[in-house]
Amino acid sequence: MINFKTTILIAATLVGLSSCEKEECLDVEERTISTNKTAFYRDSFLTLQVAPQQGLENVDYSWTLPDGSTSNGYQIDLGYVTPEDEGEYLLEIGKGGCSVFSTSYFLDVQMPPIGCSLDSNRLQITSSNGFTFTNVSYDESSKRLDAYNSSASIYLDFNSSIIGKPKEGVYSLTPGSSSIYSVYGSLNFGFSQWFFPSGYLYVYNNNNKLTVKCCSQPFRNSASGTETTASLWLSEP
Question: Measuring CA to CA, which residue among 8, 30, 6, 11 is closest to residue 97?
Answer without folding.
Answer: 11
